[in-house]
Design a protein that fits this description.
Number of helices: 9
Order of helices and strands: HHHEEHEHEEHEEEEHHHEEEEE
Structural class: alpha+beta
Number of strands: 14
Strand order of the largest sheet: 3-4-5-9-8-7-6
Radius of gyration: 23 Å
Bound molecules: biotinyl-5-AMP
């Protein structure tokens, strides 16, 4: 019935009354209103006027797996796609897949996540139709100790993809994508391994593409933003995703086959907002101030302390001192 309501709205360029819809479809006006409400939740923009009725303004631009498969220029990344309307977390869907050994490169993408995850149990907001919320299932034949640069490779591929769409982003070690000093995306690498071999990786990526200001929760307004908020235009999520998959496969294969992350690290360093800046670091053990110095070939952050000595960080929370002297 929802589709019949949509069909009638779509046929008319002007308003149609609730009364007309109700008599045409032989259901109550309350039922019409419920279907309209559901269509709005699905991303259709419908104007309602008490006097005139309803008018269809626009249809949602959905993620289109067939278009992605057709356009992507990769050997195996994103060739198999699991497309979901909604899920708790695409990383969890990836982890629950059977036969991961034949799933290498599988893309799991959802229009929304109800329990999107950040690192250390934090949550990642993922509103419907507004962003790219996806995971790649990867089964590289490498030692677990060699996994860390894959986060940098991912950040570099995001940077290149967004550049192809006219947006220059920065990377905040280890996993934040920054636009105009606010976060527009993050990377979450879930690893399952034996002592000396990776079993699989669920590589999660979240990118705020077309979120409007009201989609950002009040506690995040000072630190999160979206491409749309910053550029004032709607961006095509499918095309950005395709650019990412193409760039990611090149950098990833270079690493898996040759153990070379040179190109990715170059991109991360050139676009870093941590190197050369005053930082506050928080690790599980300690909290201290320092200056960002370099990123090692292993993907670790090298910092310089006030006494001139250096320290290598494998993980940690980094905040950067801004021109007001605040760490953000
Ligand atoms: C991350 O963690 O930034 C990793 C985010 C990975 C999300 C993807 S989406 C697809 C896949 N499936 C998942 O369930 N997750 C992955 P972290 O560095 O811990 O940052 C989390 C923090 O960022 C939160 O505590 C908030 O402060 C902030 N935050 C939450 N949602 C955000 C958003 N949409 N944009 C920017 N910042 C956000």
């Amino acid at each position: 019935m929802k589709n019949q309501v949509l069909e009638l709205l779509n046929k008319n360029t002007d308003y149609i009354s609730g009364e007309y819809l109700s008599s045409k479809l032989e259901i109550s006006r309350a039922a019409i209103w419920k279907h309209i409400k559901k269509l709005k939740e699905d991303g259709y923009v419908i104007e309602s006027s008490t006097k005139k009725g309803y008018k269809l303004i626009s249809c949602p631009c959905l993620i289109d797996p067939e278009y992605i498969k057709l356009k992507v220029n990769t050997k195996f990344i994103g060739k198999n796609i699991i497309y979901l309307n909604s899920c708790d977390s695409t990383n969890d869907v990836g982890k629950a897949l059977e036969n991961k050994s034949i799933m290498n490169g599988t893309l799991i993408i959802s229009e929304e996540q109800l329990k999107g995850k950040g690192r250390l149990g934090r949550s990642f907001i993922s509103p419907k139709f507004k962003g790219l919320w996806f995971s790649l299932v990867l089964t590289p034949t490498i030692e677990p100790i060699k996994v860390a640069p894959i986060t940098q490779i991912t950040a570099a591929a995001i940077n290149l993809a967004l550049k192809e769409h006219g947006v220059n982003t920065h990377i905040k070690w280890v996993n934040d994508i920054i636009l105009n000093n606010k976060k527009i995306g993050g990377v979450l690498l879930d690893l399952s391994c034996e002592l000396s071999l990776v079993e699989y990786i669920a590589l999660g990526i979240g990118l705020n593409i077309n979120l409007d200001k009201q989609d950002i929760p009040t506690d995040l307004v000072d630190k999160a933003t979206s491409l749309k908020i910053e550029t004032s235009i709607d961006h095509n999520r499918n095309d950005i995703l395709i650019s990412f998959l193409n760039n990611f496969e090149k950098l990833y294969l270079d690493y898996i086959l040759n153990l070379s992350s040179e190109e990715a690290l170059k991109i991360c360093k050139e676009n870093s907002i941590t190197l050369g800046r005053e930082l506050k670091i928080k690790t599980i053990q300690e909290e201290f101030y320092c200056t960002g110095y370099d990123i090692s070939n292993e993907g670790n952050l090298i910092v310089q302390l006030a006494d001139g000595s250096f320290k290598t960080l494998f993980s940690g929370e980094v905040t950067v001192r801004n021109s007001n002297g605040n760490y953000v």
